[in-house]
Amino acid sequence: MQAETKDPQYADIHRDVVRSIVETGPRYYVALATALGVTLLCFFFPWFYQLYYGIGAAGVNHPQVWGTYLASFIFWIGLSHSGTLLSCVLHLSNSAWRKAMYRSAEAMTLFSLMVAATFVMVHLGRPWFIHWALPYPNQMEMWPNFRSPLLFDVMAIGTYLTGSSIFIYMGSIPDFAAVRDRTTGWRNTMYTLLSLGWRGTDSEWHRLHWAYTFLAVLIIPLAVSVHSIVSWDFALSIVPALHQTIFAPYFVVGAIFSGTAGIVTVMFVLRKYIAGFDQYITRVHFDNLGKLLLVLSLIWTYINAIELFTGWYSGASTEHEALQYKLFGYYAPLYWEMILFFAVAPLLCIFKRFRTSFVPMLILSIAINIGMYTERFLIVGTSLSRQYLPDAWGVYVPSLVELSIILGSFALFTTLFLVFVKIFPSISMYEVKETMDIPKTEPIAPPEGNPA
Amino acid sequence: MTNFAVGLFHGPDSALTAAGTLKGAGFATPELMSPVPIEGVEEVLGEKKSVIKHFTFFGGLIGGISGFLLAAVTAVLYLHPTGGRPIITIPPFLIITYEATIFFGILFTVLGFIISARLPAFRDRVYVPESAVDKFVVTVACDDDEHFKRAETILRDAGAEQVRELAEED
Questions:
Q1: Between chain A's N and C termini, which has fewer beta carbons within 10 Å?
Q2: Whether A222 and B102 lie within 8 Å, measured CB to CB
Q3: How far is the alpha carbon of B36 from chain A, nearest alpha carbon, in Å?
Q4: Does B76 lie at the interface with A, CB-CB under 8 angstroms?
Q5: Are A289 and A263 in contact (CB under 8 A)?
Q6: Do B135 and A444 touch (CB under 8 A)?
Q7: CA angle, corner A364, sides to A361 and A366, nearest 5?
Q8: Residue A228: C-alpha distances to residues A81, A234, A380 (Å)
């Protein structure tokens, strides 16, 4: 039995991660049932209600045709950038502290993208015509218009979803092999198939290293392009507050920022609720994530200030009106709440004492994501409600259906993540082992029996 | 049936030393199995060539061409009135090209990995489950018992905790 003060060894992380997959307590089932129940009740049922009664149930109308569905779509796409940053960027910079976290962060990426994709379906005004958007030869002689940013979106998000799935799968192959050896029955069959017969030979490691590195190099510009393209859904319109070139970097920085905050939340939950994971997810990780949050907050504040400044400096009356409405109009309380949560609160991360405390960082990460959602909502809300002509002005308030679907989307994400934790090793065993010392000489024991 | 001498070591250095000694003694190139990638394998066992980069490159090239053609050809075949603006517009189509380049680059990289790592493995090969946990394993093919005894001696001299004899179907 390891003493409490000893550093974990190879066999410890192996045992802890396999146990997290194979052993399931009642708390997990309660969490899964709750998440699934809330998803059905708050996401799917209101959506079906909306499909039956029409998009008006969502509170959208002229001029606010996008509402919270698009805000949620962008929010979830934004959350997906966390995984890419941690996995790919920090992999190429050989950072050691990412190793315990990146698998779960990549999973966040994947599931955020899936939830975002559902919002594309939810926001449709005439969903019975969705087949018009599909690429097949038809007598209307219509084909998707590749000059539209909506099609850039399809290509970008489709590529990102495929790329992220492949990336998380490839990185997990050695861990699937390790779990395969410790399981029996249906789990053994599943992991045997997933691991493709991986043995951990030097040639296999060599190939995996190169494939993984090339994938990381390909996915980084992809992630930057995805959120830039999502921003161009707005920037390529002519609505005053949307038609801005700053949108591409603004969205990408905001995405990485909120994604990193999302990782802090997920890491807190993992280390609290999975036995043994508190040895691998430590204050060092929170410290480094806190530093990242601080830097990203400062960049975001700068970009926001620049947006205000160039809008004012331009002297254009429409720009002035848009800024005036944003800062002092109907949605002003939301704007200042966003500034508080996004620009002011993360400054607490200057203090190392704050960065290395778990609960304060959790609260900050949730506040950042609330601020993030507000920001996405304001981008849609304050711009569409003040377009060029006064007859295209109108205040928008989300309806119950929309609020319920927002809540349901978080539940959907949680459901997917809970399922992930039971199938994928949620901490990368082999990468964390790389950060540990070589194991001490111990007698070779036979593999542990499977408690499932 | 090929027989293998399999040595289990507690650290990568001793495993690498054993592999180098085996190679120097005229055995077939040994294979190392480990829970983590080992540094310094190429110095001992010879440089490894990676073909994956070629796959990635050609994937990107094919993707770029396909992406541009997809956008341009469909714009020409399914014409829309554009008010005098170009039918084949470069900036938007470049974005499609860019995404398709990355998409095919990713797919071909995976293909390259699968082909060069010879996965999925359809036949059972020599494997030691401890190598996925915390042991560093050296395996070497042996023709006969005498060969095996020589290999065993080399492995034990290098510090193997255990030496096993395993067989693999050809």
A1: N
A2: yes
A3: 5
A4: no
A5: yes
A6: yes
A7: 110
A8: 12, 10, 16
The ipTM (two decimal places) reads: 0.93
What's the one-letter identity of residue A19? R
| Residues of chain A found within 8 Å of residue B113, distances taken between Cβ atoms | 170, 207-208, 210-211
The structure tokens listed for A419 are: 């399922």
Interface of B with A in 79-138 (CB under 8 A): 80, 89, 92-93, 95-96, 98-100, 102-103, 105-107, 109-110, 112-114, 116-117, 119-122, 125-127, 129-135
**Residue showing tokens 């507050």:** A241
Dig out the tokens for A323 from the structure: 């800024």
CB spacing of B11 vs A438 below 8 angstroms: yes
A33: number of Cβ within 10 Å: 12
Q: Which of B77, B113, B126 sits opposite A211 (nearest CB)?
A: B113
Which chain B residues are closer than 8 Å to A156 by Cβ?
95, 99
Separation CA A60–CA A124 (nearest Å): 11
Which of the four pLDDT bands, split at 50, 70 and 90, describes residue A450? very low
**In which region does residue A94 sit, left (phi positive, over 0), alpha (psi from -120 to 50) or beta (all else)?**
left
Classify residue A343 by its DSSP letter.
I
Question: What residue in A sits closest to B85 (Cα-Cα)?
Answer: A147
| A residues 38..57 contacting B (CB < 8 A) | none
Dump pLDDT digits (tens) for A18-44: 999 988 889 999 999 999 999 999 999
Residue A316 DSSP label: -
Per-residue model confidence (pLDDT) at position A332: 94
Bridge partners (DSSP) of residue B139 are: B6, B31
Q: Which residue has the higher pLDDT, A93 or A205?
A: A205
pLDDT, one tens digit per residue, over B92-112 is 999 999 999 999 999 999 999
Element of type H or E holding B164: strand B162-168
Query: Which contacts qualify for A151-154: CB closer than 8 Å, 24 or more apart?
Result: A151/B96, A152/A229, A152/A232, A152/B92, A152/B95, A152/B96, A152/B99, A153/A229, A153/A230, A153/A233
Give B150→chain A minimum CA distance, Å: 23
Q: Compute the mean pLDDT over every residue in chain A, rounded to the nearest whole number.
A: 90
Q: Which residues of A touch B134 (CB under 8 A)?
A: 9-11, 14, 433, 439
CB pairs under 8 A between A and B: 182
Position A2 pLDDT exceeds 70: no
- How far apart are the C-alpha atoms of B126 and B164, rounded to whole Å? 11
Task: Report CB contact under 8 Å: B92, A146.
Answer: yes
Q: Is the pLDDT of residue A221 over 70?
A: yes
Sheet holding B2-9, edge to edge: B31-33, B136-142, B2-9, B162-168
- Cα separations (Å) of A420 from A208, A247, A294, A402, A423? 22, 33, 30, 27, 5
